[in-house]
Amino acid sequence: MRIDDQGTAGRRGPATDPGVDEQVVRERTGRGWEQWCALIDGWWAQQLTVGRERLTDRRLANELADGTFTTSHSATVAVDAEVLRPPCSTPIGAQRCSRTSPPS
Fold first, then answer.
1. 10 located within any domain
2. Which distant-in-sequence residues (6+ apart) come within 8 Å of 64 by Cβ?
3. Which contacts qualify for 96-104: CB closer than 8 Å, 24 or more apart?
4. pLDDT tens readout for residues 48-103
5. Are the CB atoms for 60 and 50 separated by under 8 Å?
6. DSSP letter string, 81-92
7. How far apart are CA 102 and CA 104, in angstroms?
8. How far is it, in rounded angstroms, from Cα 92 to Cα 21?
9. How does DSSP classify residue 62?
10. Domain assignment of residue 94, yes or no
11. Is residue 79 a contact partner of residue 87, using CB atoms and an 8 Å limit?
12. What is the pTM of this model?
């Protein structure tokens, strides 16, 4: 999905050039672009690509396409919202409330 100039979501149109010639794809894989697109939808194509990169040591876990890494962590804390809201409602308080490690 993409956001168009009017701020509404819409589907992208087809690319005019997939980057690899139809004949080369057919020679090397036995299928053409139309057959591959019908076989694999977008999400699975990306998952298979990443999986193949990991299996062939071209990508590590949590590695992005640009070579950087990302990870996240979250925790649930039992606290009454009325107790938490006032200290976290100011800009400085919000910064302190979002820290993942104690201040030095």
1. yes
2. 70
3. 100/73
4. 888 999 999 999 988 988 999 988 889 888 888 777 777 777 887 777 777 655 55
5. no
6. HHHHHHHHSSHH
7. 6
8. 55
9. T
10. no
11. no
12. 0.41
Euclidean distance between CA atoms 32 and 8, whole angstroms: 33
CA dihedral 72, 65, 57, 35 (to 10 degrees): 120
Would you state the structure tokens that stand for residue 28, as one six-digit string? 């090397």
Query: Is residue 30 a part of any domain in this protein?
Result: yes
Higher pLDDT: 60 or 17? It is 60
Number of compact structural domains in the chain = 1
Question: What pLDDT is attached to residue 15?
Answer: 65
- 40 or 101, higher pLDDT: 40
Residue numbers of the domain that contains 44 = 2-55
Q: How confident is the model at residue 13 (pLDDT cuts 50, 70, 90)?
A: low
Q: Find out whether 10 and 1 touch, Cβ atoms under 8 Å.
A: yes
Structural domain contains residue 83: no
Q: What is the pLDDT of residue 32?
A: 93
Residues in the chain, how many? 104
